[in-house]
Amino acid sequence: MLEFKPISKRDAARLRRYYENCDYGLCEYSVGTRLMWRKALNTHWAEAAGCLITRSGRNGKYTFDYPVAGSEGDIDAALDAIEEWCTVSGVPLHYAIVPQSRICNLLSRYPYVCVSDNRTWRDYIYYREDLQLFAGRRYSGQRNHIRKFRTQWPQAFVRRLTAEDEPAIERFWQDYEAEFAKGDNKSARSELKLAKEMFRQLSKPYFLAGGMFCDDRLIALALGEKCGETLIVHIEKALYSYSGVYPAMVQEYAMLFGGDVTYFNREDDAADRGLRTSKLQYGPAFLGSKYQVKVQNELMRHLEAIPTLKTARLTLTELREEDIPAYNALVLDGERNRLWGYDDVGGLGGQVQERSFFEVAKRDFENRLAVNFALRLDGKFIGEAVLYNFDGRGGAELGCRVDKAFAGHGYGTEAFSAVADWGLYQLNLAKVKAKCFHENEASFKMLSSCMRKSGKDDTYFYFEKLV
């Protein structure tokens, strides 16, 4: 089971091991973005199968980024770990930042998905040579601005910034805020605060900071990091009073740190009209898509209401209000449920009320997390069968329990087989899974009669039934 912990500055070196050779090309796959926005996005991280897994969100609503493999990482195993965490935690599986080069892997992995690609969050990605040379007619505007800047401030130069430049950087922030055009914009001021924090980490060798000086005054600065063949530029700031300084700084920064990278990623525009206009004027090679993939299950796609199933002796329906007393008795029978494998009371997370268990079952179906069938003998409630733990890959787990007064007559086997067949042939599942404790001989015999054994561990025997 994945163990997530919040990203902190102490984690930077560990994260960098994954990001330094990452070829996804998107700004989220970098130490700088992770540190800069960690609090705003509540980003946590974990490791599994030699891969880095990041998760953002709160209050039970989480999104995962596509895993980043280390030198011997297994992406498929990391995806397995994400799926397991979501299943155990009871939260939907939602990937938020999937690079275009990896989207096909998820589409082939999951039968049902909802895919989106929001224009607002696409990164602007440029060829290194274009920013270094500004060659060709399309860059005539940038060249003119740079020419005017050089004519007015011929002494301006660019060099790498280090931690020793902290006094000059602090003076720059004072000058910048004095002419900050978006001072009343809350999000812009928040971003500025984060930018200041990032420039206090110049002792980290992977952060590439450059500054343009006019005499001894710092008038522009930028900070980025190399990830694979892309240099991701996290921060670009300049004093507006120096006309033409922005394109001049963009070019000089690309010359200073471009090296042998192929691309420069200047990140997204966050739907800011001015930023969008400016970044488009620099002629991006392409916009880096960040696909969102919401994994769905068969309940979401094929089931509007719980159906009625019939067997030789039983009728299976949805739970009804009149079932509440008998359903509570079934759920609260500690002796019978000792080998059920799930703590219904503990799972409530609160005090047991008369309608508690009924409402949980109802809510699980409304959220398409599970479907609970009431087993009826001559109309009387005698037990339940639950199809749950949908893995998004065509599989689900099935459990069944029968009131002790009706045990030993094969009703459980009859209901279990009916729901398994319904799941496979009506709900379009590819696999129905089940498990039982080693000491639960009755369940072992029942499962063995209608499924095939697929394995065991120290606690359970595992079974499955395939189409």
Protein model, in words:
This protein is an alpha+beta fold and 467 residues long. It has 3 domains: 5-121, Gcn5-related N-acetyltransferase (GNAT) (Aminopeptidase, 3-Layer(aba) Sandwich), CATH 3.40.630.30; 124-267, 3-Layer(aba) Sandwich (Aminopeptidase); 298-466, 3-Layer(aba) Sandwich (Aminopeptidase). The chain contains 18 helices and 23 strands. Strands 1, 2, 3, 4, 5, 6, 7 and 15 form an 8-stranded mixed sheet that branches. The chain has an 8-stranded mixed sheet with strand order 16-17-18-19-20-21-23-22, sandwiched between helices. It has a 7-stranded mixed sheet with strand order 9-10-11-12-13-8-14, sandwiched between helices. Helix 17 (411-425) links the parallel strand 20 and strand 21 (431-437). The radius of gyration is 29 Å and the shape is elongated.
User: What would you report as the Rg, rounded to the nearest angstrom?
Assistant: 29 Å
Unreliable runs: none
Class by helix and strand content? alpha+beta
What is the share of helical residues?
25-40%
Net shape = elongated
What's the CATH architecture of the largest domain? 3-Layer(aba) Sandwich
Please, what is the average pLDDT?
Answer: 95
**Secondary structure tally: strands:** 23
The CATH class of the largest domain is identified as Alpha Beta
CATH topology of the largest domain, by name, is Aminopeptidase
